Every structure is written in C-alpha cells, then in structure tokens.
Amino acid sequence: MFDDNILEAVSERDMDLLILEELNVSRDFSDWFYRGNGLTVPSGGLSKALHSISNPELGESDLIAFYSNGHAILIENKINDIAQTQQAERYQQRGEREIKSGDWKSFSTCMIAPQVYLEGLEEAPMYDRTISHETIIIWFTALGTRRGEYRTAVLEAAIDQGRRGYVVIPDQDATNFWKSHYDYMMALFP
Question: For 165-178, what is each residue's pLDDT tens digit?
Fold first, then answer.
C-alpha cells in the first residue's frame, strides 16, 4: 500500500515521535516494549512516555518511558548517526541519579536502531537491551491494520536510509568550540 517513499528522509526525531506516540497511545505496544526489555509488565502499564529529556551534566535521553511500578526505561534511538562518547554510561548515570533522588524505583536502558547498526556498534552491549527496527516492524505487521502498514513503511524507510550509509563525521574543531561555548555558558548562567 505504501510503496512510494512517504517521507523524503527519516530523521531520528521522526522515529522518536513514532515510538513516543505508540508508547503513549497503545497499551499493547507499551506492554510489548516493556516485555521486550526483559521485564514483567506491571498491572498499571505505562504511566507516560516523554521525549528529549535533558540533564545539563549528563546529556539527553531521546525517550523515557515511565511505568506504573516506578520503573523507567531510558531509550536511545539511532538510525545511522554515530554514538556519542560514553553515551551508554551517561544513560546509566542519569538513571542512577534519579533513583538516588527518589524519583524512580528502578530503571533500564534500551537502544533502538536498525539491526545492522546494532551489530556494528561496540557500545550496543553496554545498554541493558537493544530492540531492532526490524523487530518493531514485526510487531506492527502483526497488527494487520493500515496504521501498522504505515508505521512499517516509516521504519523500513529508516532502515533503508541507514543502509545507504550516511554517517556524520565529527569535526573536532567544531566539537571543541561547542564544548568550550557550553562550558562558558554553564559557568556564567548555570
């Protein structure tokens, strides 16, 4: 049904919002996602999922899914961008900080990406779980609905885009500039 490209290009944000919506509106999906993280679904299910939650020292989580039992899943979503330095460790540190503050009872980390990306990323095993886009496609395909077909088409476009091999090559001078700018701003305007 969706043979033509629906989107010219699929960004990480597009994927974030697709997963965010499904977590927030589909109890079946949010329960499936929780089980996919090796957990037993709490009776109250998902409380809410949020996008782009930042911490000044530890960076950003693409998504966080909060469940009724006090467990949070910090989700990193990739299509083909390179992983940031110590990204998995910072996810762990953010989770540990929230437990110490009493906001969460427990947490786990999960990376979502095309299977080929997960297989080529040394840092992938540092996340508690990984879920491939292909696995999510299986879930949507099983719905047998137009919505499932649409979601599958977007995921397939993301996988195809990742296969084409676009990879951002970091520029060390630009990275150093933005880091020094950030440090300067944090010193003056914490």
Answer: 544 456 788 778 88
